[in-house]
Protein: non-specific serine/threonine protein kinase
Amino acid sequence: INSIFRRLNLVGRGAYGAVYRGVHNSSGAVVALKVVNLDTPDDDVSDIQREVALLSQLRETEQRNVVRYWGCWLKGAELWIVMDFAEGGSVRTLMNAGPIQEKYACVIVRESLVALAYLHKSGIIHRDIKAANILLTVTGKVLLCDFGVAASLANSSSAKRTTFVGTPYWMAPEVITQGKSYDQGADIWSLGITIYEMVTGNPPLADQEQMRVIMLIPKNKPPRLPAEGSFSQPMRDFVAACLNEEPNERPNAEELQKHKWIKATAKVSTVLLKDLISQYGAWVKSG
Structure:
């Protein structure tokens, strides 16, 4: 692996390991190197194996808007998983400069729906949709990442899952009420929460402890965008459609692509999202 890739600086820590910026020696392409220590409990290793299996399943399709997987290599007790590197950073990181304006949020959601429609068609539930897992490249392209907890429905006996994973604030009620099986609709709920997070700065209940959130989500009425915000009605409708407490009443990703809020941006290029990267750069410079 060292002859193929060069490991550079640490860029973050994911669910199962550190992520470094790296370079593909022969082409000079910048890649993300996820370095996982395999001296970990067996159940963690099976999670990692699942991520690798999913990523390689996705590699076979040059699909837009999903982080592309290059392969994985073993080096001693370390597994190096190599993926596209999105130099623009995650939407969550870019939000340090302030919440995302609606005109940008709409394009981010439009592009995320391309990835979700593709994953769902492939029988995969992402299970951890949030702003931190939506990445931008320097050209403004949107990539969905972190399949650490994604579940493939293809090889499960039924097309629903009953395991509890993901990040509580973004979790659909049916994921929390254990035993209640769930399907791709769980990602649609999380997308609704992610829009709320992008435009207000945080997901609902962000001021509450995780354990309390797990109790509140199934009990509370589904969140809506704050009344005082200057959000358009189509956007409010879109979020309300995603945050329907009845999973089977939520539209699927393909239906959401036809929603008025999304269709309004049909001609808007993702190049617009470069603004977010430069705003963040200016924020960093200003200290």
The radius of gyration is 19 Å. The chain has two domains: 5-84, 89-282.
